[in-house]
Amino acid sequence: MSENNFEDKLVIRNTKSVLPSGLAEVDDFPENVVVKVNDIDRSAPLDFGSFAFTERDAKLPTTRNPLKAIRVNPNSFVAHRRQVLLFIFDHIYCTRLSEASLRKLYFECRTLFNVLDGHGYQDAFRNSACARLAFEKYSVRLAIQLACEAITSYTALTRQNIFKWLLLGCFPQDGHYITHGIASFSSKRGHHKVPEEAEVTRFAQVTYLIGFTVTDFIVENKTFPLHLEVASFKKYIFPFNSACPGQYPKAFDAVNRETGEFESLDTLMQRFPNSPKRITNYYLKRARAQLQKSNEDMRCTARLRLASIAVAAYTLLLQLITGMSPAELRGIKYSDVVEAGTGQVTAELSSIKNRARGKKTYYSLGGKIGRRILLDYLRIRNWLLDGKDCDYLFARLGRTGSYTGSFLKLDRGYSKSAIERIRKFVDDEKLKYIGPSQARKYKSLVFHELKIPNKLTASILNHTEKTNAVNYAETSPERSQIEFHNYWESVRRHAATIIHRNTNNDDSLVTPSGVGGCNSFRNPSTSFERAPLVPDCTTQFGCLYCDHYIFHADFEDLHKLLSLKYVIQEIRKCASSIEHSTKLLQDLMIRIDQVVLGVSEISENHKLIVSQSNHRVFELGDLTAFWEARLRRLELSGVVL
Predict the structure, then answer these.
(1) Which of 59, 344, 574, 634 is most buried, by CB atoms within 10 Å?
(2) Angle, helices 301-322/197-219, rounded to nearest 10 degrees
(3) Residue closest to 621 by CA, chosen among 581, 546, 566, 582
(4) What is the rounded (10 degree) CA torsion for 479, 482, 487, 491?
(5) In this predicted model, what pLDDT tens digit does every residue of 133-159 receive, in sequence order?
(6) Are 307 and 384 in contact (CB under 8 A)?
């Protein structure tokens, strides 16, 4: 179906707006019910009833839309979805969901029905067989998105649980059989990965430069255009667009954004040859007049818009510095930060952590730099208030089409709208957003690298040592790659050194061992920072990590080393914990293979010796006397069966 034909079939249906408290009375025609959050909220109601139609408008109704309902195709009505809507309405009525939870439920259900209707599973709630097929395919789709990192494990689990919840509600007898055998996604708290240092640095740099540059421009009453230079973004901002500074009308652009100057009439005529000269000249004069007007009115709409972007940038930056959760940051009172009368600004932010039963939390601003950023933010905040009062430290400008001059508490989803505005402002849709959870993980990583005690780290981040160990004791992908690279480079270098030293070694100074030789017996030492096995002259499992290990590139030492490998393989076969044995012995196996590979690369004769040694040990089972006895003791003790 073409887009035009699809749009032509969509109509506006007669709907009934119902408060959550009145949903118990809905029995007939639930497809025409829209749920209004409350009597005061002016936003569009939640159109749950549209889920009964498989063809719906993708656009959500806005506050200005008097109809406040989603357009649907009446011919796409699915009767058996009425029971789904009634189940949802009963849940909303009985649980008395909060406004935030109600909105979240609506958007999660909307995502589910969009996928079902867009991929041929319109009959998912018709019967148990259709439900089973749809749930299976939906879970596979989520798994693919998770594997491609399009969604997080938490999102996958949430979306799967919403579908499962609806199936259990609509099929109370068969619901468990419908979902049985299909693996559930797992998600733990703190599912976000540790961000890379470059991502954190860029995010902090962009938000700080936007906040500082715009604040200085606004507070000091400077004139347009504003020259903004953030990393690779260098542009002049003019007060010409009502949506966002920096984004200009495509039909007519009278300025050169690179130089910050107006184009000449001749240049504009060449750029827009189809436009009459008088029209082009009119738009050019209009742009000049608008620039002059904006420079005369120091509280014009363009400046208010810029100031709101600066507030958004500072809010995200201070959230990054402190690692405060959105709920904590929204609840910070101005009086807790600035002392009345003296104007003294605190060095830390305090808030109430609702998730921890109202615990009072304190977050450091990080010394002089953090305090300076807070003072800069207070400059633009005071300019916006213009003498008015606001209880909250972080807030937003009130709007009903245009700015009302009010200063309201931040919305729950403020971070999403703030980062979207900043990305548009600097023309960088790929700017990585560093949320509070990622910020805390990054801070924890830095603290651990600085060898700060775990107790102090947990105290700074306002959680317990156990929470820090379980959810914050990880490294970033960037650091992991560097550590793996350095480790395996040291393994290869050490293996090559072993081969090299043996070709020039004085055998009279070497003490034979179970895995080769030693030039300083009873004196174990290692240069590896994180050796899985500590060198010990009594066991000889850790000899390959010892600086005094000597290996002769001959049949005798190869027989010893491969005998050790054979014993390790037998131990791993019978290990009760595969994960533990892999962690302990896998690196040792790889080191053995590196040494053996080094021997085979010396010459064709050495390659033949390696082949004969492998045949003798792994096919004939002929071990050295030392490792044969060790293997027998392990068998008698029950370690190897």
Answers:
(1) 634
(2) 140
(3) 566
(4) 170
(5) 999 999 999 999 988 878 888 888 999
(6) yes
Tokens 């700017």 sit on residue: 431
pTM of the model: 0.61
Q: Which residue has the tokens 């259900």?
A: 109
Long-range contacts of 280-288 (CB under 8 A, 24+ apart): 280/252, 283/252, 283/254, 284/254, 287/238, 287/240, 287/254, 287/255, 287/262, 288/254, 288/262
Ordered alpha helix ranges (H), 220-246 = none
Q: What is the largest CA-CA distance in the chain?
A: 102
- Please tell me the number of Cα atoms within 13 Å of 361 on its side-chain side: 26
Query: How far apart are alpha carbons 407 and 327 in whole angstroms?
Result: 18
Query: What are phi and psi for residue 181, nearest 5 degrees?
Result: 90, -5
In order of 19, 72, 210, 314, 343, the CA distances from 409 in angstroms are 24, 35, 22, 15, 22
Residues of the chain with pLDDT > 90, as a percent, come to 13
Residue 558 amino acid letter: L
CA dist., res. 213 & res. 224, Å (int): 13
Cα separation of 277 and 265, whole Å? 8
Residue 249 has pLDDT above 50, yes or no: no
Say whether pLDDT at 201 is over 50. yes
Residue 236 CB neighbours (<10 A): 17
Calculate the average pLDDT of the chain. Answer: 80
The Cα 216–Cα 201 span in angstroms is: 22
Decide if 555 contacts 590 (C-beta within 8 A). Answer: no
List phi, psi (to 5°) of 271.
-75, -35
Going by the DSSP 8-state scheme, the letter that residue 72 receives in this structure is: B
The count of other CB atoms within 10 Å of the CB of residue 85 is 20
What kind and span of H or E run contains 214?
Answer: helix 197-219
Token look-up 């490294």 returns 475
- What are the tokens at 638? 């029950």
